[in-house]
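Q: Focus on the chain.
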Amino acid sequence: MAFEGISLESLLIVAALCAIVAFFYSNLGLGGGQLYVPIMVLAFTSLEMREIVPLSLTFAFVTMISATLTHSRKKLVDFKLGLTLALGGLIGVVAGALFTLNADEWIVKASFAALLVIVATKMIYDLYKNRQDNTISPDGFTWKRKMAGVGISVLTGLLIGSFGIGGGVVSVPLIIYVFRVEARRAIGTSALMGAILTPAAFLAYALGAEGSIIIHYDVAFVLAPLIMVMAIIGSTWGLQKLRTKAVKTIFTCGVYLAAAGMIYSLLMQ
């Protein structure tokens, strides 16, 4: 049995690994694309990067919408801030999709690997410095903070559109460090941003591909429900059991593994 050239064995491997990613990454305000993409690059060897990205966007969307729902029940989503930042991100989404659809495969993979290394290194730096998380969420923001937020939200959209991630690698630090929002509320707000921007990016691929790539709707239809269920279970469990530092440590290790996988894929080309 095959799904457009994808073997059943590969599909089962991706299903199992992506379910684990969804369980943990739903606690981080991240879509999981940092690991979904390398997993599929290594398992679905017949697919190009620009075919994998729309699949990752689908998985990132169900992860983010699940995280948004569970965090909102605990009143850990700033809807006003999240919606405002998502509007700026829509600009970046289109630019990112155009980049991946038109750039050479190795450039996209190398850019993604570099992004992963930078993000994981930043997280390790914060853990090493024992940087304290904010404990309150302010009600208002200065114009300087608002302008910084718009700029980085555009970058968030660019990364989502380019690499099929949920954008939390940028939006979570943005919300924590620029807007001084406490960590768990920042994670919930980031999940809301991703839940808006990932389907917008998927639409950009569907409209912009013009028959040049195959969008594997069959694979998305089979795996998305599993990933959504695991994300709901994971985020519900994590809000009750996981401390923020433990979550950050899991995230950092996972991103470094993903970077290693992407580098390996580049070297094997």
Residues 2-267 form one domain. The mean pLDDT is 80. The two ends are 27 Å apart (CA to CA). The CA atoms of residues 27 and 235 lie 5 Å apart.
